[in-house]
Amino acid sequence: MKIEAIFWDFDGVILSSHAIREYGFKIALKKYPPNQVNQLMEYHRANNGWSRYVKFGYFFEKIRKESFTKDNVNKLASIYSKAVKSLLMDKSLLIKESMSFIQKKSSFYRMYIASGSDNEELNQVCKGLGIDEYFHSIHGSPEPKTKILKRLLIEHHHESSKCLMIGDAVNDYDAAMDNNMLFLGFNNPEVEKLSTIDFKLDKLLEM
């Protein structure tokens, strides 16, 4: 099996950031009733990998059952970002297994990040962590992950069957399948069962 490009999710795969992400939602929604915030947190945990824009939209439409505008969502997303950005730039949160692979193999594979995190914030955080140099490019929301992968495959003329998505959420698996890519579940036992290759990161290091 020849892999030519690897697409990484970010939260929970490269950075152990789930607790900080939950904090961001709670800060952004602190003026709303606690029971509604709790419903949003349950939705967030059940849909790791989806963007905050989708989740804030769900909060207004499904939980509060009220009309909302793009501006309403963007305001909450801005509060969220301000709450978490500096906290995410903590190198102690980098996941050692992933970073060891990335550092050792960045010259062997073309690597990208395709995340549900906000694109501008994600690029700033990766730069702050000093890991941006390992990736050909870094991409986040509001562009959906499936579309990010499709666009990059076309732009860089990658053969999808030779590309691997590494993620910890069903959303990552779905994005890979939508683009006929290989998938490696990581850092989540249930998602690891969805892997379409038998290799772990340590085995890929030997390739």
Q: How would you describe what is shown here?
A:
The protein has 207 residues and is α/β, with parallel strands linked by helices. It is built from ten helices and five strands; from the N terminus they run E-H-H-H-H-H-E-H-E-H-E-H-E-H-H. The protein has helices spanning 18-28, 34-46, 52-63, 70-88, 96-105, 119-129, 145-155, 170-178, 189-192, 201-205; strands at residues 5-8, 110-118, 137-141, 163-167, 182-185. Strands 3-2-1-4-5 form a five-stranded parallel β-sheet. The longest helix has 19 residues, at 70-88. It is globular and about 50 Å long. The protein starts with a strand and ends with a helix. 36% of the residues are buried. The mean pLDDT is 94.
Supply database-style keywords.
globular; five-stranded parallel beta sheet; 207 residues; alpha/beta; 10 helices; single chain
**How do the helices and strands follow one another from N- to C-terminus?**
EHHHHHEHEHEHEHH
* Major sheet description: 5 strands, parallel
Read across the widest sheet, the strand sequence of neighbours is 3-2-1-4-5
Q: If helices are DSSP runs of H or I spanning 4 or more residues, what is the number of helices?
A: 10
Beta-strand content estimate: 5-15%
Kindly, what is the distance between the CA atoms of the first and last residues, rounded to a whole number of angstroms? 9 Å
The backbone outline, from C-alpha atoms, is: globular
Percentage of helical residues?
A: 40-55%
How would you state the average pLDDT, rounded? 94
Beta strand count: 5
Report low-confidence residues grouped into runs of 5 or more.
none
> What structural class do helix, strand and pairing data support?
alpha/beta
Determine Rg (CA atoms, Å). Answer: 17 Å
